[in-house]
Amino acid sequence: MKIKRILILTAAGLLLTGTALFADDTADTLALYSDAFDMIWLVLAAALVFFMQAGFAMVEVGLTRAKNAGNIIMKNLMDFSAGAVAFFAVGWAFMYGSTAGGFIGTDQFFILGADSAVLRDWIFQVVFAATAATIVSGAMAERTKFTSYLIYSVVISAVIYPISGHWIWSGVGWLGNLGFHDFAGSTVVHSVGGWAALAGAIVLGPRMGKYVEVNGKKISKAIPGHNMPLAALGVFILWFGWYGFNCGSTLSGTDLSISHVAVTTTLAASTGAIGAMITSWIQFGRPDPSMSLNGALAGLVGITAGTAVVSPIGSLIIGLVAGILVVLSVEFFDKVLKIDDPVGAVSVHGVCGVWGTIAVGLFAVPGALDNAGLFYGGGAAQLGIQALGAVSVFAWVFILALLLFTIISKTVGLRVDSKDELEGLDTSEHGMESYSGFQIFSNM
Amino acid sequence: MKIKRILILTAAGLLLTGTALFADDTADTLALYSDAFDMIWLVLAAALVFFMQAGFAMVEVGLTRAKNAGNIIMKNLMDFSAGAVAFFAVGWAFMYGSTAGGFIGTDQFFILGADSAVLRDWIFQVVFAATAATIVSGAMAERTKFTSYLIYSVVISAVIYPISGHWIWSGVGWLGNLGFHDFAGSTVVHSVGGWAALAGAIVLGPRMGKYVEVNGKKISKAIPGHNMPLAALGVFILWFGWYGFNCGSTLSGTDLSISHVAVTTTLAASTGAIGAMITSWIQFGRPDPSMSLNGALAGLVGITAGTAVVSPIGSLIIGLVAGILVVLSVEFFDKVLKIDDPVGAVSVHGVCGVWGTIAVGLFAVPGALDNAGLFYGGGAAQLGIQALGAVSVFAWVFILALLLFTIISKTVGLRVDSKDELEGLDTSEHGMESYSGFQIFSNM
Amino acid sequence: MKIKRILILTAAGLLLTGTALFADDTADTLALYSDAFDMIWLVLAAALVFFMQAGFAMVEVGLTRAKNAGNIIMKNLMDFSAGAVAFFAVGWAFMYGSTAGGFIGTDQFFILGADSAVLRDWIFQVVFAATAATIVSGAMAERTKFTSYLIYSVVISAVIYPISGHWIWSGVGWLGNLGFHDFAGSTVVHSVGGWAALAGAIVLGPRMGKYVEVNGKKISKAIPGHNMPLAALGVFILWFGWYGFNCGSTLSGTDLSISHVAVTTTLAASTGAIGAMITSWIQFGRPDPSMSLNGALAGLVGITAGTAVVSPIGSLIIGLVAGILVVLSVEFFDKVLKIDDPVGAVSVHGVCGVWGTIAVGLFAVPGALDNAGLFYGGGAAQLGIQALGAVSVFAWVFILALLLFTIISKTVGLRVDSKDELEGLDTSEHGMESYSGFQIFSNM
Amino acid sequence: MKLITAFIQPHMLNDVKQELYKNEIYKMSVTNTLGCGQQMGYHESYRGVDIEVNLLKKIRLDIAVNEDFVKPTVDAIIEGARTGEIGDGKIFVTPIEECIRIRNGETGRVAIG
Amino acid sequence: MKLITAFIQPHMLNDVKQELYKNEIYKMSVTNTLGCGQQMGYHESYRGVDIEVNLLKKIRLDIAVNEDFVKPTVDAIIEGARTGEIGDGKIFVTPIEECIRIRNGETGRVAIG
Amino acid sequence: MKLITAFIQPHMLNDVKQELYKNEIYKMSVTNTLGCGQQMGYHESYRGVDIEVNLLKKIRLDIAVNEDFVKPTVDAIIEGARTGEIGDGKIFVTPIEECIRIRNGETGRVAIG
Ligand SMILES: Nc1ncnc2c1ncn2[C@@H]1O[C@H](COP(=O)(O)OP(=O)(O)O)[C@@H](O)[C@H]1O
Ligand SMILES: Nc1ncnc2c1ncn2[C@@H]1O[C@H](COP(=O)(O)OP(=O)(O)O)[C@@H](O)[C@H]1O
Ligand SMILES: Nc1ncnc2c1ncn2[C@@H]1O[C@H](COP(=O)(O)OP(=O)(O)O)[C@@H](O)[C@H]1O
């Protein structure tokens, strides 16, 4: 009897231990797998977002003149390179370090002591920072001093972007705490880039020959880009990279809303292109390729904030509006305000970034956020918060960038001299030609 | 004693409950992980397949003339954009909705009520639909009215592609039920595109100057493409994207046959390029770059149907044959049939798509399908089914597309007028130039 | 009583079985998931590395003259295609077959009998072999006979690369056994390509017009590349692909050091670009775009060996040094040694490959390898092994390649004749033009 | 000896060449040029901004001939290039004082053909 | 009839065109060319190797006019192209013996305008 | 004053320039052109279809000189461009009636150099 009882007890005991051990092992493995999902998801998404640098470079090269192609490439290469080092040194710390009042991070400089999870998050974040930085090069193309651009790159990646990023994405920022929702960065990334671009374009002034006085009236002249195939390639690369940008922003590889994000992203980009094509058709009498390309990007920027919280139908509308908006906005900045933005960066990233941010307050489906969007009967609560965020970030970025560019302009100088501008920045800034051997009308 | 027994019972009870709870949790997590695998796998694969749009755009731009580059880009951008919206609205429903007799799907319009799994499948499927659609633009390049092309895009993505797709991939289609095997779409995607392209090229007629009467005999003239580097880039992008196309078609991230698919895909593409290079060398006396590029694509199209069921050695042969075939087919369509297909889309996607479909019946290894291929002693059963599928889809697509293009031709008109064609579609259809500033002999 | 006891026993028994069954199932699923992680990770990484072929093609096209663009493309396409088949037939066997004394693999020809894991490893390895092969085309650009290049491609992929690869990466090779560490291939891939490129450039001799006698002194002349935007695109593609190259080299999707690898890779590329830009600025008075692009690649090559074992700060330094080194090295080979390497392949891949290999011995953090690096107080042990490896591989590759190219040169001939070289290889080797219609000064 | 310089529409080059060949005139030089004549320019637009293109793409043909070939050459060009519409182009005839064949130093009438 | 051939700086083309228009000279042909004159070349570098560029980008303008238009045309070109710096360019005047309008076969003075 | 116009092989441009420099002729204009002469065209093919290329790439050189410089210039061009093979090219000499330096309005002989 006793023996039997002991046997039973022992059996049960062994069983207990075994199960426990097995459970422990399994739990460890499951935890590892969870980490592995996030790891490969975020690193692959980061690689895709990195690739967007190529997209920006090609779009900007394509929509400007041949004589500045090498300079644009250098700017795109170096804003990433300098920006990455800056974001490594201080940017990450300002963005994700322990908060000082929800306004700025204060530790983790040089991401010292980072474990694999922090390194993973850093790699995903640095490519976003670089995206914000590189947006500006398009608006400032064809006339900016290379050295000055380098200075700007460091400042935006080290200071401007991370601080407003902290407000929204750090988990402890004041805007995030208010319930401001910007899933993948319509505001955090794109508007920041767009408004810095606006400040830059204003301080720089237009390219020579862009606005000409005819009978006392300044009229806008076209300065056609030199390579539409590359511009189109750039847009396809950006769209491709955007799957990393938006889908990756789930921040987790086991988040099953990834497919929702992918669908809304695709639909908005599509209707963005359609919207811009139709608008350009109506406005100019012909479907304009470079505008349609901008339209796809506008749709993508527009959906970025709300991609996870709006319905597919919602995304169709957001994209369509963005596509229409971008054409009108490009015209407005060019013909009314006479601000020269060669690639439409301000309209695509600034204006459509705000539209996307606001759209969250209109189209958020019930249950996704604390408040549903206005169109789903959630009232104007979310809308108000979104507007507040958009305005705050605008103010922060625009004022700081205006200051920065003005200081650069007064000190090292922001603009190349007019002879160099006419000749092209490739020769004057880099002493080379981008299309050696090709016969090109350089007077254009 | 009693107490002891109770203790034991309690212990065992606890153990039971604990284990069960733990087992429940674990099972849930494992199920979530299974979903997560499929999610990230299919979304990443979809992104890769999306990127193939850039590949098609670059190949087509590169193999046509500079004066039509902007138009081609617009067609590629808009066939995706319009096609995606069409596939969202009705295409998916026709393809994957509840079947009506194995011929057409009948519900899930606007993918209403889709959960994350359906959204995941939609994003993976929409990029396939867009691939089929975009194949056509190459064959119809340099002479098609933009508006008419838009109409075509919507119809193929909304109706033609989804219905034959339903037959094969819906799980309940009549061809699929017969045992027709097309893993990633040699027929479903590529042949559909290729045969629609053929219909388009026939209805359109050749580009001006392509076939000239000399002494009462029509001879074919070369109209060289203007940008080989971009064409090559396009092929590399397509090959890259094909890893998403074929490997993603496991539809599951935990399917360990992924590597098999990747290997056969790589080998077939390689021997496709080799086959075309050698054939062109023999035929024309020199290894022709644009043909070798076509050869790589031919190998890829050829392996797409059988990639999961043929051996690596089988894939070497399939690719090689495709590479040889594509050169002969291009020559045949051009010199014998005098059908003008600027980029060889009919040969690459139509002809090699059929070859790949048939090849399943020849090279399927035993055990992979119900019947092994002819060369593995499985008899002609599978071969017969494959041929039936290829013929049925040909008939369906070719007739419908012929009808569609004829109707368009009689109503809105399919072709630009000859002055516009000479001048180039960039100026006439879009009022712009793609390479502003470059000096280009536009008389070519 | 008895019944109760029996009940208890039964309950416990059931419990035991149930738990065991559940544990079995779970373990199977977990093992499957582990395989799935590795599968999707390596296949996606392989796709990224494959895409680097496009990067190499664009860099090489961009940095050479328009009249040879089609030839370069053909070389890049065919070295992959022929190389893949060669690596399939024998390369893999020599690299990963059962070892003969740590020097060469001896079985698994045609990867016969490979299961999904071997196929997975093959797909990941073949793209590395192709990378090594394709490096050479840049250094030999604009003057090499196409046929001869094909022969070379097969030999390097079938023999040269796999054998030194066996020494280091097979797990049983003599260098690996000594503790030589080359995480992702600074030596195994890049130096192999770089030194073969050096041998090729030496045997070939410089392009016509590259070195001109002026007053009895040979001076180096610039032969500008024709397409900087494509060269830049190529570098961005390479950088993008490098995330597959380095991160994929964890060989496991559940290895959480992936993020560490991604971070060091990014930082080194950035400081590489910065280093080269600054060095070129100091040396030539202006920030040189093509050198800065080379700098990013130099940083990437430099970090490839040590990416997993050096700290982020270490990677910053490794990249910076690589960036400086590449400029000095390009100048040295061009101006001092008068070896004509149009794209700087020898400096980027050979020299910086060695630097990266050595850097492991300097910067390896304690705990990562058996010995920490010199700068971390680990002494010179690791440094010595790294140097030994670098020298051994140099000797193996350089001598064999020298032999190979000399034999080719004496038999089929390595170089096109001078008329063809002047006219351009596109016309002479392939009978076509790459930029048909464009007006190009072909005398450059 | 005369130099005949013609500015024609790019897409008429082939026809002009055929006509010249028919008249056994095989030697010529062809240059890309932009022309502004009676033909009005046209309007392109780029990103919604109008571009007035008044320099149109033209082909410049230079043909050096002996006196007796002037008329056949001019006629052949007209035959090939004329559509009757504005933009057809123009032909200029200028004197050549000397002509030298680089290959063998031949000069004058024999060198031109 | 005279042919006025001017080599000017590429970026002065617009100004020159404006001046010509002011003088009611609308017909011209414009070609891309490379020029070597008193203007020194400049130095570019490529990958650290110096390139001496002594063929500078220029625009070649060909304008055929009747005698009485020679002076206004030359003056207009000078007005538009002159900056007073080396590199401003040069104008050559050569005789034209005949001018034919392809469209309608008109010749001589009436054809030129 | 004379205008010397030469059509030469593109890859001979460098040699021609060297010869001209030796003779202290530094001013010239260089244009890309396509030429059809005694030199036969060649055959390219594109996607298996033969292309007969009979317009070959040439360089057009325009050099305006004073009378006494005509011979040295022509000789220098021949010296630099001659290989003795068909395709070497041709030189035409035409009269210039006036030459104006835009920078300072100088005309005639002094303006040309
Ligand atoms: N007076 C001129 N000087 C120089 N080039 C001219 C002149 N007149 C015509 N051309 C060239 O001839 C081309 C055709 O001229 P166009 O006005 O169309 O001829 P038409 O007067 O017969 O209509 C112009 O684009 C220009 O290149
Ligand atoms: N003698 C000449 N022959 C041919 N072209 C000339 C001649 N002189 C000048 N040119 C052309 O005119 C351009 C301007 O010449 P440049 O030396 O700058 O003029 P300037 O003597 O007024 O400074 C040159 O680049 C060249 O294209
Ligand atoms: N009669 C001509 N008119 C115009 N250009 C000519 C003439 N003859 C020769 N050329 C130009 O000179 C180039 C060289 O002519 P080619 O026939 O090769 O000279 P050669 O008669 O010495 O062999 C031609 O390609 C063409 O551009």
UniProtKB/TrEMBL annotation, chains A, B, C:
The segment(s) forming the Ammonium transporter AmtB-like domain are: 40-435
UniProt cross-references to Gene3D superfamilies, sorted A to Z: Ammonium transporter AmtB like domains
- InterPro entries in UniProt: Ammonium/urea_transptr, Ammonium_transpt, Ammonium_transpt_CS, NH4_transpt_AmtB-like_dom
Would you indicate the residue range of the signal peptide? 1-22
Keywords of this entry: Ammonia transport, Membrane, Signal, Transmembrane, Transmembrane helix, Transport
State the family named in the UniProt similarity comment for this chain.
Belongs to the ammonia transporter channel (TC 1.A.11.2) family.
PANTHER family named in the record? AMMONIUM TRANSPORTER, AMMONIUM TRANSPORTER SLL0108-RELATED
Q: What is this protein called?
A: Ammonium transporter
Originating organism: Candidatus Thalassospirochaeta sargassi
TrEMBL record, chains D, E, F:
Q: Which GO terms describe its cellular component?
A: cytosol
Q: Which SMART domains match?
A: P-II
Superkingdom is: Bacteria
| InterPro entries in the cross-refs | N-reg_PII (IPR002187), N-reg_PII-like_a/b (IPR011322), N-reg_PII/ATP_PRibTrfase_C (IPR015867), N-reg_PII_CS (IPR017918)
Question: What would be one Pfam family of this protein?
Answer: P-II
Record-level GO BP terms: regulation of nitrogen utilization
Which molecular-function annotation in GO is an example for this chain?
Answer: ATP binding
Report the sequence similarity comment from the record.
Belongs to the P(II) protein family.
Q: What is this protein's record name?
A: P-II family nitrogen regulator
